Task: structure prediction
Amino acid sequence: MDYQNLNKMEQNQSGSKAYLISIVMVAVLGGLLFGYDTAVISGAEKGLQAFFKGASDFEYTDFMHGFTSSSALIGCIIGSSLSGLFASKFGRKRSLIFAGICFFLSAWGSMEPETYIMPQGVADWNLLVVFNCYRVLGGIGVGMASAICPMYIGEVAPSNIRGMLVSWNQFAIIFGQLVVYFVNFVIMGSHANPIYDAAGHIANLMDAQWTIETGWRYMFGSECVPAGLFTFLICFVPETPRYLVMVGQDEKAYGILAKINGSEKAKEIIHDIKNTVTVKTEKLFSYGFMCIFVGVMLSVFQQAVGINAVLYYAPRIFQDMGMGNPMVQTVIMGIVNISFTLVAVFTVEKLGRKPLLICGSIGMAIGALGVALTFGNAALSTITMLSIMVYSASFMFSWGPIAWVLIAELFPNTIRGAAVAIAVAFQWIFNFIVSSTFVPMFNMHLTQGDDFGHWFTYGLYGAICVIAAIFVWKLVPETKGKSLEDMSKLWKKEEA
Result:
């Protein structure tokens, strides 16, 4: 490659941080949408449940509601499974544009599932099917974005700040959840959520009428704004240099790297990429079984610790704890989550990946066991609340961002697309398992009216946190300061 002819494209030796930050921030919007879409159900689910309970042609059971609340996760599994194929065949950028379109169509369709064809506001079986299809479509967008956004950031970021920049993606996810908690709170205003009596009928139908007919629609529809913005802006960011090299567009890749890293460093990176990308892809297990196993188990543990069950059902949990306004408590938890995610953002490059994961696992175990031992005891409700906050905060500075950092950087270039897709697919599979089993486990009773399910559920999550800490200590390699090209050497060494 003739670099002499590229003088016009060369930046100063330090590169342009402003350029890097601008393209990373656009990719980070995908993380915000990820958080927004997955958490919007927390405010809408009760109104949605009451709406479909009014159907005349079928009985809307608790099982159906659990499926409807979690149907987006099925799309997430599909989207994350396809992400590797899309990212390798069409590139990271085009795949993110497709994800953005899925986000927007899902938001609009979930707000108006009748699509001006079926009778407006009439709950029936056909409408339930259509609604779930729109939620699955949104899930496909979430699944793709969840895999490709960290991959995109990891592939454009310099190795010395890659962990921090990928952590911003997790910050955006949590910020998206906080935004939607606040948006849901504002949309609800003075309106009431439906309350069911012992017979399963809505006891406050008049007070909750607006929520049942309109409120949940506004909550889903509010996603159109960030979805439209993301889809528009992603059209203006470049493709990742590593993908461009893989498809033979070296000059274009060099131009982007020079803007980010400076011309001399860009030459070194291009050289390293070309040395590790001898072919476009390699067989999945070219670097051994442990490479894939560690990536998959990072995804499994991130979900198996139970955090998303808390995030999705936060208002319901706080209501069961006897809190005055569950939506307010949910917003407070969102603020705590944001604050502790920033801890990871600013320490991941100093402390490394493994110490944060191990400390977070221990903190989560303490928090989960605290909830297990105190839930249902009115005299200890403050301790229960604090334990939930410790549990959530510990996740936010550890498994929340750091698992994504490791998944984005752990795999060698030639298998990254497929390996990330598999790891993230497992993440969504276990997200679905945890989310769909939380309510049945939480409501289990050994005797009439006891809290067996409450302490069993959180006790189980606490035990999994301990196992996660041991897994990280024994099997997860430290990747701080290593280039993406170093991963090939690391796993070849491990295999040998």
Summary: The domain at 12-237 is CATH 1.20.1250.20 (Growth Hormone; Chain: A;). Residues 17-53 form the longest helix (37 residues).
